[in-house]
Amino acid sequence: MLSTTPLAYAADDVTLQTIKVRADRPSSIDSVVLVENTQTQNRTLGGMLEHVSGVQSSAFGPNAGAPVIRSLSGSRVQILEDGQSILGMNALSGDINIPFDPLFTRSVTVNKSSDAVRFGGNAIGGSVDVDSGIVSRKMEDKQKDVELILRKGFNDADAQGLRVNFNDGKRFSTNLQLSFQKIGHYDIPGNSKAGVCNSQLFPANGGVNTFLADNCQKEARIQQIYNKASQPFIDQFMKENPDWADGDFSFYTNNPTSVWQRKTYVNPANPAYVSGTPSMTQSKINKDVTPDYHGTLGNSHASNAHFAVGTTYFFDQGYVAVSLDSKESEYGVPGFSMENKSFGANYDEGLPVGVVIKQDKYALEARLSSPVAYLESVQLRMSRLNNASGERLGSTKANDYQFDTNQAELLLAHRRAGPLSGMLGLSHKARDIAGSGPQLYLPDANTVSRALFLKESLDVDWATFDAGLRHEKVEHEIRKSGFKTSRNASNSRLKDRSFSLNSYSLGASAKLGQLFGAKLRYASSERAPDVNELYASNRHYSIMTQEEGNQNLKAERARNTELTGLFANRGFQLSATGYVMKYENYLYLGHSGAQMANRLPLKYWKQTDTTVRGFEVDASQVVQLGSYGKLNLSAFADLVKNKADNPDKLRAHNDGAYLPNMPTNRYGANVQWENKGWKARLSGTRYDKQKYLGKSVSEEVPLDGYTMVNFQVSRALQVANSPFAGIDVFISGSNLLDADARPHNSPLKYIAPLPGRGFQVGLSARL
């Protein structure tokens, strides 16, 4: 910028390059990570982000994975695309994947701190914002850019994609995206069901671990069988009158004679008699309700299609952009690939569970610089999101849910006043939910939220301070429909609910000399219960639960304290973050201790005070190798504990202090090398065996830890006398050790491991 100053004074008419300034740029005090999209295998959004410390994937099979930030996900982590929420059924049902294009997504911004001031209660546990690449926010460098992507998978998806940008270099820029991914099934290194599904069904102290049996999709019970060798004589009367017998035991006796109807019978000796043997023996029944696949993960197919177009008009003070984005997905949910049938059923007639998703998004985005004297910029975002998500049992519709969401947000960034900068925001969101099908567990409902928020930042030489405040009103309205609650429901007659929410945050960062720095953040955030927590009822097969809401639930409040220490010296960077999140009225799905039809556990949405504690450590070192390029070494470690503060007796007995399916601690390392068009990366992450176990009446059974090793090598080529401006070729591999990988936070960990060793080769060609 300084170098252009003499030219600006020397010329009469100079046009300088526009520098993009976002009105809602992330705070430097939050734990914000920008993840660029490389050519690595990104099956799901959660999978793309799971190498970020503190972030794991929900891993609901290979085809559905949402980001889990510091043990929080679903309605607590706001998922956005180009700044607009795309939360739908994916927030309420874990098997519904977040629509995601792994080929053309530019980057993803993850805020691991509470982001409720900016994005409302659904960001009480953080936010994830996807830059789709559909909208140009500055004029592209080339007037025409065409990119063709072809990928071939080996135990990974085949993919094809086309991206086109054409512009006039001045006013208009249009982007077109088209992509497809498909796979018939995934291979696994061993059996689909974990070894504990056989070895630990029957504890040494007796009985059956019903929690493990249900999660392993097993019919497990102990049957008492009479021992025909336990008594020395055969009852002659019963032998002659078998209709009088009540069972096998009636035919045997300890007496050499018997008197029946005043007649004496001589009882013959029992030839099978063995002295001292017990009269009853136990038979342990262990049958698979769903198949235990070997080498292949059944019902793991997937196909995705994406089409998008976006056009931007640039003018002197900003731009206006409109876009259309359409995504379709169809995939199988492995593991409980059949209905969890009751004891004695014909399991061969089970039905595979499938998911179909269609999402259309229409969006408008505009930015105006310096509209009036005191405003630096005005930014407007509006969108219409139509998301249809359905579950299938075989070819039969279990349910379809239509989520129609209208959103609008206005951001007013005021001019910098000395060290002070900030913005005022207003947002409105209206969501309609409508369901159909025989397996409905949610009523038709409308949800409207309105919010006003303010964020300010104060920058001085040695420190930065920020503060934010948000007031939000959330209203749930029940619409008339054919939905009926179960006989076990907490709610008799569904009622409308409204919540008034207030959230604020305070933060500071400071330089502590030349090498050290520190960041401190405190946030008090509120979240309103969502429709599933308030109104759900009936069987919810995707989570294998009879789910029952409670419309009398209160809003959650989280008080988060986060401290980060920083160190940097000669290319080495180290950051360590510790956090404590104290929740009042933390919402969780608690076990009642009972089972319903098809052996589904009956669970109710409940509340208790909960504390989430954890830490994250990140380190990196850049090494310049001269003519041999550059080497980037990095490592991380993280740990999180989500524990009830003072659980009541029912919570302690049925659910334990820790909830099931909590993320385990991890540590990993990454080596990346670049030189003259070559790029290579090797990474490894160790997932430890979980120590903090929850309960579902029976205690959760931990699985062994595992190590995931991935690699990628790519080469940029210039092909002479060809129409291509450049070609990138790559090969990547995942799970190189072919580990039996079962994330502890996955609801399917006992019945569906992650895919085994896989490879993908591909090329990206630009015209």
TrEMBL record:
Gene3D superfamilies: TonB-dependent receptor, beta-barrel domain, TonB-dependent receptor, plug domain
InterPro entries for this protein: Beta-barrel_TonB, Beta-barrel_TonB_sf, Plug_dom, Plug_dom_sf, TonB-dep_rcpt-like
Domain of life of the native organism: Bacteria
Cell compartment(s), UniProt: Cell outer membrane
Membrane topology: Multi-pass membrane protein
Keywords assigned: Cell outer membrane, Membrane, Receptor, TonB box, Transmembrane, Transmembrane beta strand, Transport
Residue ranges of domain TonB-dependent receptor plug in the record: 24-126
Occurrences of domain TonB-dependent receptor-like beta-barrel (ranges): 315-714
Record Pfam families: Plug (PF07715), TonB_dep_Rec_b-barrel (PF00593)
Family under the similarity heading: Belongs to the TonB-dependent receptor family.
Listed name of the protein: TonB-dependent receptor
Organism, scientific name: Janthinobacterium kumbetense
